[in-house]
Write the C-alpha cells for this entry.
Amino acid sequence: MSDQFDVIVIGSGPGGYVCAIRAAQLGMQVACVEKRSTLGGTCLNVGCIPSKAMLQSSENFDEATHHFADHGIVLGEIKLDLARMQARKSEVVSANTKGVEFLFKKNKITWLKGTGVIKAAGVVTVDGVDYAARHIIIATGSESTPLPGVEVDEKVIVTSTGALELEKVPGHLVIIGAGVIGLELGSVWSRLGAKVTVIEYLDRITPGIDNEVAKQFERVLTKQGFKFRLGSKVTKAEKTATGVTLTVEPAKGGDAETVEADIVLLAIGRRAYTDSLGLAAVGVETDARGRVVTNGHFATNVAGIYAIGDVIAGPMLAHKAEDEGVALAEMLAGQAGHVNYGVIPGVIYTWPEVATVGKTEEELKAEGVEYAVGKFPFTANGRARAMGMTDGFVKILADKRTDKLLGAHILGADAGTLIAEIATAMEFGASSEDVARICHAHPTLSESVKEAALAVSGRALHI
Ligand code: FAD
Ligand code: NAI
C-alpha cells in the first residue's frame, strides 16, 4: 500500500476539485485522481469554459458584423480569423486548468495522475498502485449520450468536444437535439456564418424550460437564422465524400427524408460516466440510467464510498456539482453540509440568454399549486432600449395565497446575471412584494425584475 489519505476524490471536474479543496480547508489529507492531462474536468477543458469563450468571441464578431452600424460605427471589411479565435479559447481554458493546479498546490492536495479504480472500500488503485483512504468520492462526471446509427468520429460527426474544435466554419451544420448544447454551439457557428438546422425529437425546443419562454426563444433563434425541424428523429448518418447524409423521419412515424450536412453535432443529452471504476466488483449500486445511487448524504450503498456531480441524479450543471462537493466535504468533517435543490439556477448562454430558477408554470399546474404571474418585457426597459437588446421578458411566479416566490424565468440580455437576484430572494424565502420593494438602480436591466415582481400584484409602473 502506498500513501494513506483521509479522502480520495476520483475526478477533478467542478464537483471533484471543489470537494477536494473544501476537504483540505477542513484539515483533511486529500488526493484527487484525474486521468486527463489537465485538471478541471469536462467543465474547464471541453465544456462550460471553452464554450463560453467561443460564445463570447462569436458574439463580438456578430456585433461587429451586424450591429455596430446601428450605433454609427462604420468598420471596413470584417474578417474572421478562426485560428486566432480557437487559440484564444485554448488560452482561456489553459488559464483556468492551471488555476486549479495552483489551488491544489496551495491546499496541499495530491494529484494522482492516471485512471482510478476502486479496488475495495478504502482502497483506490491508480495505474497499478494502491492508495488507502477513509472516504472515497466518485466524481467521474458524464459523457455524451450516443445515438444508434450515428457514429461519432469527432471530425465530421461530432459531440460538443469536436464542435468546439472545428477548423473551418461549416457550410451546413445539422444539430441533433434542441437542448442546451445544440443551441449554444449552434449559436457559435451560426454567428460565424454557418447555416444551422436543428432536428429535435419533441415538438418543442429546450424541454424542461417554461413553455412560454421556450416558444419565444424559438422565435428569436429562428429570426437569427436557425431552422428547426421539430417532431423529427434521425435514424441514420452516412458519411459521404463531402459530408454526411442524414435520414430523418417524423418522430410519430411517416416517410423518411434525407438531409445533407457538412458537419453533424450530436447533442441529445449526457449520461453518467463510470467506465473502468470497478463499481460492479465492489457492489456500488447504479440506477437504470447508469447513475450512482446515493442517499441524502451522498453516500452509496457501500460504506465509505460517496458520489457527487453529473454521475448522480439531478441537473448536470457545474454549480450543482460544486455545491454537492462542498456539502459532502463539510458532512465528512462533521458539519451540516446542505444543497437546496429547489433553488439551482440554469442558464443557456445564447443571445439573448435564458435563465430559470425554481418551478415552471407547467410544474406548478401539475402539482396543483395556485400561483400568480408577473411579467415584464424588455421592450419597456430603458436600458435594454439603449443597448438595442429588447428581445425577451422577465416572468415571476409567486404563491397566490402567501406571495412567496416559487420561480422565475427570464429570456433576455444578461438573464444569467439577473436570475441571481431571484435565487438569492428565494433562498431567503422572500415574496414578490419583497423584491418589488428593493431599490433597483436606474437605468439597469434589473429594473425589469422589479417590474415583474410588481406585476405579480398588477402594479407594474412602466407597462
Ligand atoms: P466532470 O466535469 O465531467 O469531471 C469528471 C472528471 O473525472 C473528468 O475530468 C474525467 O477525466 C475524470 N475521470 C472520470 N473517470 C475517471 C477515473 N476512473 N479516474 C480518473 N479520472 C476520471 N454546466 C454549467 O453549469 N454551465 C455551463 O455553462 C455548462 N456548459 C457546458 C458546455 C458543454 C459543451 C458541456 C459538455 C457541459 C457543460 N456544462 C455546463 C455541464 C458541466 O460541464 C458539468 O455539469 C460538470 O462538468 C460536471 O462536473 P463533475 O465534476 O460532475 O464532472
Ligand atoms: P439536453 O438534455 O439539454 O437536450 C437534449 C435534446 O435532445 C432534448 O431536447 C431532447 O428532446 C433531444 N433528443 C433526445 N433524443 C433525441 C433524438 N433521438 N433525436 C432528436 N432529438 C433528441 O442535452 P444536451 O444539449 O446534450 O446537454 C447535456 C447537458 O449538458 C445539459 O442537460 C446540461 O445539463 C449540460 N449543459 C449545460 C450548459 C449550461 O448550463 N449552459 C451548457 C451545455 C451543456
